Amino acid sequence: MNTGNINRIIKMPKQKKIKRKPGVCVPWDEKKKELPKILGDEKVVQKVWEDIDTLGYIYIWQCLLSF
């Protein structure tokens, strides 16, 4: 058996390294690009988004740790 073929099969492709702060799923800067122009106070929208995003992050970790 040729071990070179086994190494080629097992080798994982390189993955993109995404730099995000701990506790963040989708950073505000990324999410803001998806939204239409914000007519009101952008700081309020940012705060709400970051709070919701943090809850999602906590939920994911809770699911991982519970099972």
Description:
The protein is mainly α. It has a domain at 21-66. The protein has helices at residues 3-10, 28-34, 42-66. The longest helix has 25 residues, at 42-66.
Structure summarized in a few sentences:
The chain is an all-alpha fold.
* H/E element order: HHH
Annotation field: number of helices? 3
* Rg (C-alpha, Å): 20 Å
Structural class: mainly alpha
State mean pLDDT (0 to 100 scale): 87
Query: Would you count the extended β strands for me?
Result: 0
Q: What fraction of residues sit in β-strands?
A: under 5%
Largest sheet geometry: none
Features:
mainly alpha, 67 residues, 0% strand, single chain
Secondary structure layout plus pairing:
Elements: H1 3-10, H2 28-34, H3 42-66
